[in-house]
Design brief:
By secondary structure, this protein is an alpha/beta fold. It has 7 helices and 8 strands; from the N terminus they run H-H-E-E-H-E-E-E-H-E-H-E-E-H-H.
Length: about 180
């Protein structure tokens, strides 16, 4: 098993260096690996273990919300080879890689988004408390400005999700439209 995990770590590492179609192919390859097994008592959540990870409860909470929204979720291990993303989400044959940031404090979005720079180009914000809509919009816009590699910020709030892309924040109507979506 040690050899398999080191091989798995190598496959995960490739996600940091590949782009475009090769990245997507690698993402699918990782999700199809035999190390993943269905999480007992859950539907459409797959894991390789990692229940002792300090962030596991936050990961499981976000994974359950993702499943409610129609995703299959692969919780990624951290094979101690630097910072790694937390999830692969699959929906209708489309695979995406996310870094989870659970928001529990009043002013933590900006710092949490900064932490993810260099780790993954998609961030999942799991909002666990009320947060100023205006501040959240500003923090997300600043994140995209600071991180040229950023593609998406996905927000889970209650039972809904909001996807913010780089193109969306460039719209002059971003804050107004975001406020309507977020405060619904």
């Amino acid at each position: 098993m040690h050899f398999a995990m080191s091989d798995f770590a190598e496959e995960l590492y490739k996600l940091r260096i590949l782009t475009g179609a090769k990245f997507i192919a690698q993402l699918k390859l990782v999700a199809a690996r035999g190390e993943f097994h269905p999480l007992e008592g859950e539907t459409n959540i797959y894991t390789t273990g990692g229940e002792r990870n300090k962030d596991y409860n936050n990961q499981l909470n976000a994974a359950r919300k993702a499943v409610e929204l129609g995703y299959r979720v692969f919780i990624l291990p951290n094979p101690n080879r630097g910072r790694t993303p937390d999830f692969i989400f699959e929906k209708r044959g489309i695979y995406k890689l996310y870094d989870l940031k659970t928001i529990q404090g009043n002013a933590s979005v900006s710092n949490r988004l900064k932490e993810s720079i260099g780790q993954c180009n998609r961030v999942l914000l799991n909002m666990r408390r009320n947060y100023s809509t205006r501040l959240l919009a500003t923090d997300i816009k600043t994140y995209f400005e600071m991180n040229s590699e950023a593609v998406e910020v996905l927000i889970f709030r209650g039972r809904k999700s909001i996807s913010i892309s780089r193109f969306y924040i460039d719209s002059p109507m971003f804050e107004k439209e975001f406020r309507k979506q977020y405060e619904k």
